[in-house]
Amino acid sequence: MQQQAIAILDSGVGGLTVAKEIMRQLPREKILYFGDTARTPYGPRPAEEVISYTHQIVDYLLQYQPKMIVIACNTATAVAIEEVRARLTIPVLGVISPGARAAIKSTKNQIVGVIGTDGTIKSGAYEDALRLISPSIQVVSKACPLFVPLVERGMFRSDQTEQVVSATLSELKETPMDCLILGCTHYPFLSDAIGKAMGPGVKLISSADETAREVSTILYHKGMLTTSMKMPIHQFFCSGDPNMFRSIAQGWLNEEIGVTPVVWQVPNII
Ligand code: DGL
After folding, report:
1. Which residues constitute the domain of residue 64?
2. 73 is annotated as an active-site residue
3. Which atom of ligand 1 is closest in space to residue 14's alpha carbon?
4. Distance (Å, rounded) from C-alpha 80 to C-alpha 83?
5. Distances (CA, A) of 97 to 71, 79, 81, 126, 264
6. Percent of the residues in the chain that have a pLDDT greater than 90, as a whole number
7. C-alpha angle 261/152/71, rounded to 5°?
8. Which of 14, 83, 182, 263 could form a disulfide with 187 if both were Cys (CB 3.0 to 4.6 A apart)?
9. pLDDT tens digits along 167-192
10. Cβ-based neighbours of 188, under 8 Å, separated by 6 or more
11. Which of 73, 144, 179, 238 is the catalytic position?
């Protein structure tokens, strides 16, 4: 079991922000990464659809017998994590509780902003996770449905991106929050534009760091950390255009990768 891989999944390239941090904190662990780019974005989809896609990807990854699953997608974590956990015996970790914990650690004035997809914001999962830890915290949320398509097109720093980000976040600037949770794993790709729009008084919180720390803690306590001394060769799968995926992934991870295309029977693109 120790030598098995950590499987990470997302609707597209967003989960790479979590994968990169896991690779940094646990450099000897092998990663299997699945980006469901044929069906991204998940944010506007009904919960049942996101749940069924998540099960389908988990089933695909299970053929490689991973020792742990990381649902590196807030939208899927919000609606599917309990179901996935209930049917597996290996640890299953999402990104919402780690993101909430990171914000609680950071906030000084107890006013926290959350941005995410429509699905994540509608679910109220961040409010629940934050208030579970700190009942008095004030949470201001906003769905940003235009952000994921920009990232999937590789438009991280264009003028158009800056305009869209600034217009979308303008109303959040009215609230005196001191930190903003990037409640979608795609958003760290846009952190320059988001940081510029929110100004220097607002700290951006990504769940990647805290999620990776939790992966490390869980594997350590379960005696499941790898004992291999060899550097791992990670595997990447994507259901859409492998060239686009490879180009974004290589830029983000700063390394060459191989991508295995996966063709779903019914791609269901919106
Ligand atoms: N990266 C996902 C999330 O964290 C994706 C969103 C989407 O596909 O809309 O929610």
Report:
1. 6-94+209-261
2. yes
3. 1
4. 6
5. 12, 13, 11, 8, 30
6. 96
7. 70
8. 182
9. 999 999 999 999 999 999 999 999 99
10. 17, 182, 204, 206, 208
11. 73
Q: Is residue 1 part of a domain?
A: no
Q: Is the pTM of this model over 0.90?
A: yes
108 and 76 co-located in one domain: no
Q: What angle do CA 232, 233, 239 make, to 5 degrees?
A: 135
The pLDDT tens digits of the residues spanning 78-89 come to 999 999 999 999
Is 199 part of any domain?
Answer: yes
In the chain, how many domains are there?
2
Q: What are the start-end ranges of the H helices in the chain?
A: 16-25, 47-62, 74-87, 96-106, 118-123, 125-133, 147-152, 159-169, 191-198, 208-221, 242-253
* Residue 109 is assigned to a structural domain of this protein: yes
Q: Which residues line ligand 1 (CB under 6 A)?
A: 10-12, 14, 40-43, 73-75, 117, 120, 148, 184-186
On whether residue 268 sits in a domain, the answer given is no
The neighbouring-strand residues paired with 235 are 32
Active site residue 144: no
Ligand 1 atom closest to residue 145's alpha carbon, by position in its atom list: 9
Q: What is the CATH number of the domain that holds 67?
A: 3.40.50.1860
- Residue pair 77/118 in contact by the 8 Å Cβ criterion: no
Say if residue 252 is in the same domain as residue 214: yes
Instruction: Kindly state whether residues 102 and 189 are assigned to the same domain.
Output: yes
Question: How do residues 223-253 score in pLDDT, each as one tens digit?
Answer: 999 999 999 999 999 999 999 999 999 999 9
**Six-digit token pair at 186?**
């795609």
